[in-house]
Amino acid sequence: MQDQVFKFLTKQEPFSILPEAELKQISESVAIEKYAKGYSLSLQGRTKLDHIYIIKDGLLELFYESEGEKELSGTLGPGEIFGGISILMNAGITVRSVQIVEYATLYLLPENVFLDICKMHTDIYEHFAAKFRNRMMNKS
Predict the structure, then answer these.
(1) Closest CA to 33 of 12, 7, 9, 57
(2) CB 23 within 8 A of CB 6
(3) Do 109 and 30 form a contact (C-beta atoms < 8 A)?
(4) What crossing angle do the helices spanning 122-139 and 111-120 adopt, rounded to 10°?
C-alpha cells in the first residue's frame, strides 16, 4: 500500500517537488482511510486536526455555517488537500466544515510529519501560505 501512496504523491503538488528518498519515507507515515457519503469530516471552529487529508478519490464539500445556515465555499477532489492551512495558520482548528459528498479514499499525513516537511522545505510551506493569502484576499 505504501508504494501506491508514494506513486500518488510523486504526482501531487506540492509533494512532487520532494526528493524521492524523502517522499518514500513520508509515504511510510501515511494512513489510508475510506469514508462514506454524508460523513462529516470536520466541523467549523470545533474540529482540531492532527493530520492533513490528501484526497485519493471521491469528493468533499467545504462550507461555512452561520446562524444555522450552510454556505457552500467549494469542493475538493482527487489530488487536493484539506487541513494544511488550518494546521499552519489556525493551530489545527478547522475554519470550514467538510462533508463527504461521494465515497472517498483519503491519505492522512500526520501533523508532526507535515510540520517537519514545512520546516525543512520553505517552498512547501509557501505553497500553503499562498493559498491562505489568496483566500483572505478573495474574502476581502
Answers:
(1) 57
(2) yes
(3) yes
(4) 100
Would you state the torsion angle of the CA atoms of residues 61, 10, 3, 37, taken in this order, to the nearest 10 degrees? 10
What tens digit of pLDDT does each residue of 44-64 get?
999 999 999 999 999 999 998
In angstroms, the CA 115 to CA 99 distance is: 25
User: What's the pTM?
Assistant: 0.89
pLDDT in tens, 103-123: 999 999 999 999 999 999 999
Helix (H, G, I), strand (E, B) or coil at 48: strand
Beta carbons of 122 and 77 less than 8 angstroms apart: no
